[in-house]
Amino acid sequence: MARPITIADDVILAAARTVFLAKGLRGTTAEVARRANVAEGSIFNRFPSKLALFQAAMRPTLEDPPWLADLEHQVGSADLVGYLCGLGIHAIEFFGKLMPLLLMAWSSNPGGPAGRHPLGGADPPPLRILARLTAFFAAEMRAGRLRQQPPEVLARAFIGGLQNYVLFELLLKPPRAPRLERERYVADLVSALWHGARPSPPGATAKDKDPTTAKDKDEDNAKAKPNAKANANAKEPQS
Fold first, then answer.
1. How many C-alpha atoms does 153 have within 13 Å on its Cβ side?
2. DSSP of 22-83
């Protein structure tokens, strides 16, 4: 009697990952079974529901990428701008895998219980990335390599710019979306943030430290001068 063929879980999970990334949760366990070349019942012998299969299949996508664990060791590295550019490229690749999962999760479970959400739990990947990057920017500020400012806001701006690139690539395929070369986009994003976050040079004036605030003060002073002149004229005695 022939021995039954044993199918490894990895084969089923790989098939499920392909189906769910292509169709979201509209993909069926029957499609997964056909791709894995197993009976549909074999899937439910290992996973109690389609959602459990979905979560197991997408779990590698939810694991922390290597560059995230390396963040704390890069504090004080020689070329902060260059490091942030490299970090941005890695993050875009990571978000390119994570964003479809997010979109599928939201569309399949809008307003549903967090415990059943594929990204449910107290510490999902987006929050872990935000926390690590916030800590990284805070450490660089303490080292004097970045201007003092709310580090979480800077982290959100950096992450948001990278996620926006991925979202446009996913939702607005070229030529509908403006085609920006990835490396150029990241370099320009880092440059834009750097010119707002870099430490002020020694002896810098208030205008150098905060050009926006200084400009506002200049505009206020310019408005005040005509008013002051008018007031002075009004106080002059009539001859």
1. 7
2. HHGGGS-HHHHHHHHTS-HHHHHHH-SSHHHHHHHHHHHHHSPPHHHHTGGGGTT-S-HHHH
Count of alpha carbons within 13 angstroms of residue 213, beta-carbon side: 7
* Cα–Cα distance measured from residue 67 to residue 87, given in angstroms and rounded to the nearest whole number: 7
CB 40 within 8 A of CB 49: no
SS3 label, residue 219: helix
- Collapsing DSSP to helix, strand or coil, 97 comes out as helix
How many residues are recorded in the chain? Answer: 239
Query: Does 113 have pLDDT greater than 70?
Result: no
In the numeric block, the tokens 């012998």 are attached to 45
CB atoms within 10 A of CB 153: 11
- Quick one: tokens of 18? 């392909």
pTM given for the model: 0.62
Calculated CA dihedral for residues 216, 221, 227, 228, nearest 10 degrees:
160
Give CA–CA dist 162/183, Å, rounded: 11
Reduce the DSSP state of residue 100 to 3 states and report it: helix
Domain architecture of the chain: domains with CATH: 8-61 (1.10.10.60), 63-214 (1.10.357)
Write the pLDDT tens digit of every residue in 48-78: 888 788 877 776 556 677 788 788 888 988 7
